[in-house]
Specification:
2 copies of one chain form a homodimer. In chain A, about 25% of the residues lie in helices and about 35% in strands. Chain A has about 270 residues and is of the alpha+beta class. Chain A binds a DNA duplex (19 and 19 nucleotides) through α1 and α4.
DNA sequence: CAGTGGTCTAGACCACAAC
DNA sequence: TTGTGGTCTAGACCACTGA
């Protein structure tokens, strides 16, 4: 007979309450990797080989590999095959629960890390992004000054951190805060100095979300990989800005590479 | 001529350096949602409608919607359509930088939150999971005692937190630490008391990763949604366990619903 | 330059939950 | 019951990049 028998019994799995096929494949590959069958730096089989190995379509294989990619286990490279990523332990970031100040400006402990700008910082102005609105206590669509910094590892040249400052435009526009060079000591010196907004208060937030398209491009991440968001908010206690949140600084890093560490005391 | 013209000019996009089609669709839907065209609680069009609307295949539509799902913007329900999720602000979790103790035991500030067990806690034993190995300072495959708790919101009954304690089996097996009921005050009282491991030290870690299959099932998350991992590690300073890490407590929550908040002092 | 992953289409069957 | 999302297949074209 020429009619192909439909052996594609999709539901032989869900009937038994088992996983979808692509999850099975992902699980099998995941185990093979963690068991050591594919050590870090090696390549997993090509897609058409996996296709035969698991007896399913390329789409299913790709979905499984995509899952491992968002988990940070493998990184596919065109023509180069799909490589098992090195799994270094997460690099610790110390939590900024204190701020120090000397005659040169303010220092948060995190700033001590050895990063250098990979691109020149940019300053733009535009509507406040939705996720920043609650941080600044603004209304949706309110204009903000946006200061962007792309920081990288001086050794490898890789981008490892994106830092963006948002400042309410009604406060910052027209001031030195909206200029690329904010002078010695940075914006906090300007706020507590010339602008008379000090003393300043700060509060920190940590959360995570999938990387945006722009973030995954800059940080060389697969789409959907989580980024760790470490946010520091600055509150003015005097002057024209009294009681206002005058800055929200959001730094983002590959969540599979970094963790925030902090001591617990009695 | 009967040969259909191939208008599927896939690369009219990548040529110009633009996004893939599914990213365009995702972006369009994302904007429509955040602009208010599809308010929270409403449904976005069905897949076949979107298919026509964007003039592309269902696969492409589904990939775009899948992206919005991992971003937490929408949640598809079979037969019910795809609903725009309510976007409450992230609920703050206070950071446990201090531990308190009274005659009843140890309290970390996070424990103050009003959660109740949704399932009875379980205690099992098995090989140490790979991601926990570095936390405990063990070798791959070393046995650990695993204490699992599934905590939920007493109001809604929803599961909001998974907490798992890992204890090296060479220290914990056979002790009260491996029993379901660890008695008044909990495991830390046993460690500093009968076992003579105290005084204890603690350290905290925060990171994020995609939810595992099990986690997404329990927490009702879409596959790949990031979970916030808040880990507390216990170090013994005396007794048989001196210098050892005697417990790693990993709590996981939906990263789109929660954030860790902490004060910054001068 | 050619092999690999990246993207897309068209079509099929199924289970689940709303109705 | 039925419409919706969930899963899978087979096949196509393309671009990037390593060999």
């Amino acid at each position: 007979m020429d009619l192909p028998s439909i052996d594609n019994d999709v539901m032989a799995r869900t009937e038994g309450g088992l996983m979808a096929r692509w999850q099975e494949v992902a699980q099998a590959l995941r185990e093979a990797i963690t068991e050591g069958s594919y050590p870090p730096g090696s390549k997993i089989p090509k897609e058409d080989e996996l296709e035969q190995q698991f007896a399913c379509s390329r789409t299913t294989i790709r979905r499984a590999v995509a899952q491992l990619t968002t988990e940070g286990l493998v990184s596919p490279v065109r023509k180069g095959g799909t490589t098992v990523r090195e799994q270094p332990e997460r690099q610790p970031l110390t939590l900024d629960t204190r701020v120090y100040r000397d005659e040169l400006g303010y220092y948060f402990s995190q700033a001590v890390q050895d990063l250098r700008p990979v691109q020149p910082p940019t300053v733009t102005q535009g509507p406040c992004p939705l996720d920043v609105v609650p941080l600044l206590g603004l209304q949706s669509g309110d204009p903000v000054v946006i200061r962007d910094r792309v920081m990288g590892d001086p050794e490898t040249g890789h981008v490892v951190q994106l830092a963006t400052s948002y400042l309410p435009a009604d406060l910052a526009a027209g001031t030195v805060l909206a200029e690329p060079d904010t002078g010695p000591g940075g914006i906090y010196d300007r706020m507590e100095g010339e602008l008379g907004w000090g003393p300043l208060d700060w509060e920190g937030f940590i959360t995570a979300r999938p990387a945006t398209v722009e973030e995954s491009r800059l940080l060389s991440l697969a789409p959907g990989v989580p980024v760790l968001c470490i946010t520091r908010v600055t509150i003015a206690t005097a002057g024209r800005a009294e009681g206002r949140i005058v800055e929200a600084n959001v730094t983002r890093r590959d969540a599979s590479r970094f963790e925030v560490r902090y001591p617990i005391t009695r």
